[in-house]
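Page 47, continued from p. 46.
Same chain as before, 447 aa.
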Amino acid sequence: MNLLLFTFIGLFANLFVEGRLGLNVDYSVFRHSERESYLEIFYSLQKSKFLYEFKNGRYNISAYLRLDVINIEKDSTLIRKGWKVETSFEDTSKVAGEDIVDVLRFYVPSGKYRIIMRALDLHNTQNYDSVSFDVNVPVFDSKDKLMISSLEFCYSISKSTDTTDVFYKNSYRVVPNPTALYGLNVPVLYYYFELYNVLSGVKGEQFHINISVLDNNQNKVPDIRERKFVRNKVYNSVVEVGTVNVNMLPTGIYYLDVVISEVDGSILAENRRKFFIYNPSVAPRIDTSSITAELLGIDEKSLDDEFSKAVYISTQEEASIYSQLKGVDAKRRFLGAFWARRGGVEFRKKYLERVEQANVKFATRLTPGWRTDRGRVYIIYGPPDEVERYPYSENMKPYEIWHYYNLQGGVIFVFGDRTGFGSYELLHSTLVGEIKNEEWMYLLMQR
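Result:
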């Protein structure tokens, strides 16, 4: 590895910011042995996000990636891997919407792990991305119980005999979809999963597989017919692949639900996994007409700014979908459905009013008010019922205690100015889901 790549690796330590390369990472876990599982980590990068280098009549993309798999319980690194990805093409007009897709495979013991992947554009080192999430890896060690692997969502699955192909798996070419996003341009969801201990775990000579699609409220979607299969008990391990046509589903969050049962209906195993639909041409099941009228005349830059300020109420999946939208019309339709799902015109008006109020009340020299900790709490929970303000003292740095009497029976938020420059950060709260530190006063003591 040359000095340049060592420099990039050092730079990666500071790359936990909003990404620009469209890096998506997902995983699946399958059985390997009684002590280890087979962990697959697959990722994609959006070609159009890279800086192209034109050379020898072709446009070239070059990226450096690094993967760290950390054992959380032992606080140790299990896997550390770095590699380059390069590709080229003759015409940039066909690159929009295309992804680089790859898969990595490892044998790992059971445990809780943190997966961190980073990507850097080698033609523009200011262009980078990172993804981090936690994974529980089980071991499929039960011998008398039917067990099911992860559900893997894919772009395509086809029969194959090419064992040298990186996507080859159990006589199939399985191209994973790390985004789990379907609908526009990807109308068919392909799925893959494995069953283990069939001979000992199924009592009868046959078993049933039921596959259905659920909406975000965990109700079966009537537009997608539930699929039911009967399988004979022949092999101890079984591979199942299939498709679901999702081109008529409206934009939203859905789940693929798989249930394995005996012939008498008793459940043997089940698994469920989330996926996302973006179908701008399919009318949502909620009325968006009034909110869409509110958005008419707003330009694309302003729509982007509005959605960025909705970060406190948007999901990671919605942010991923929005980042891939092209054009003002698509973004306007998306935001129309986004606000409609949360209460429509009045909700949007109140939320954006709180954003502006936060900008007035809490802005610092470097940070707009809505991006501060006090701004976030103000926007999400509204104005506090009471504020206790404590300025500088001989022993303590400035702090505030906000009281909300009607929130979860009464809660507080403690903000402290640890730097002395008016930048109050949240140190402690009694609200469930917020940061909790009963010893917050020690952080403000003058030293």
